[in-house]
Batch of 2 targets.
Target 1
Amino acid sequence: MSAIKKDYKRITTKSLIEMKSNGEKISMLTAYDYTMAKIVDTAGIDVILVGDSASNVMAGHETTLPITLDQMIYHASSVVRAVERALVVVDLPFGSYQSDSKEALRSSIRIMKESGGHAVKLEGGKEIKESIKKILNAGIPVMGHLGLTPQSIYKFGTYTVRAKEEQEAEKLIEDAKLLEHLGCFALVLEKIPAHLAKQVAESISIPVIGIGAGGGVDGQVLVIHDMLGMNNEFSPRFLRRYMNLYEGMTTAISQYVEDVKSKDFPNEKEQY
Ligand code: KIV
């Protein structure tokens, strides 16, 4: 199956909306550092998400809750320095926007000013409406995030599929429509039934990007470490591994250790 693809020099929030109306699927991956972002951007990704999943994959925390605004800005600024084409979206971390809309705006302004990111993402619907309005009023593009919202993991209790029950599904649909109405440029739907995600994508005009939300949405996002197979503990059904870097890197590093110990490295050509 050949993909519909327009040649964009630089991806903007407008390009994403255009892609949705042209039926071109949107590709999105996370990145948290300069070298990885350069590879991801060169490979032609549309959106790079500096996700708060950095808390897990970069810092080794069990949840996304501990990462700070300063740490997110550090990761985002490293990514921005590498990127020439992709739209860079930066997660507002837990605790940087929940208490009130002024704090949400202050945190978003810090991200935009200090990292050079192009947009912010935050988790939630109706309950953060005022914050979204304030951020948008300041001219900062906002991406929403509904379904499994990892910053609320202690409220949910588990990482299982969300919105399987009618009441939660109805709230999710209402929230998605509200985010569109407020002016968000796109929406991430995480780990919800495929039929519900498709229904949402068909009922709003902004692009819906799914993770564990099936193929009926307008684009897909994965965490880069997961799709490259850099860990082998995390294996949800929605994850497609494109490489087994955990094995490849472990083999390469073991070989290096052996070569150093055996004095095989460096050889005569590898010295001055
Ligand atoms: O932080 C993150 O990586 C995310 C994606 C899972 C969408 O929010």
Target 2
Amino acid sequence: MSLSSREILSKAPVVPVLVIEDANDAVPLAKALVAGGLPVLEITLRSAAAEESIKRIIAEVPDAITGAGTVINAKQMERMAKIGCAFAVSPGHTKSLLKAAKDTGVPLLPGAGTPSEIMYLLEHGYDMLKFFPAEQQGGVSMLKALSGPLPQVKFCPTGGVSLANLGDYLALPNIITVGGSWVAPKDAVKAGDWATITRLAQEATDKVAELRG
Ligand code: 3PG
């Protein structure tokens, strides 16, 4: 049975945002993150190896909840549905992307940053959104202001979120979880330093557990 965006995000202390350049790194990277308590993975379609990486993780890391990120058009959405992604994330939204999400049934976390964008997505049945790029769009103070008129919407902020500021985000009432790339630094992936990645993931998992009591 497939999970909704809300169910998926509530299983994620943090969503690692991954750019995988070499598909051979995909499985050990996913295993390292899952071992550190982060099962919900966003593999962005920003590299040539992305699709093959997603396929391998789905096949070989059953404890991961594997989603595609940077899904920006209907064609990509259809492709991700075909290969079995659990969810898809977009930095924004278009009419045709929303239609493809509906047609394929893949839970989509669409991006929004302004009241009008949020209202448009609410009209289309989305109350779980990506807030991107979080820091550049006003970060914590913007999200706090949006919770006044639009309290029914929950956000996953990404873009400039790290261990240092995730507590400020999670303290807000309208945050379901946060996402970011800091748990999988490029140099650690390149070096195959999976222990460091598990340590960074565990550090994030522990911090979120501590903040949420
Ligand atoms: C994203 O794609 O969601 C962000 O680019 C991740 O941002 P970060 O690299 O600042 O964590």
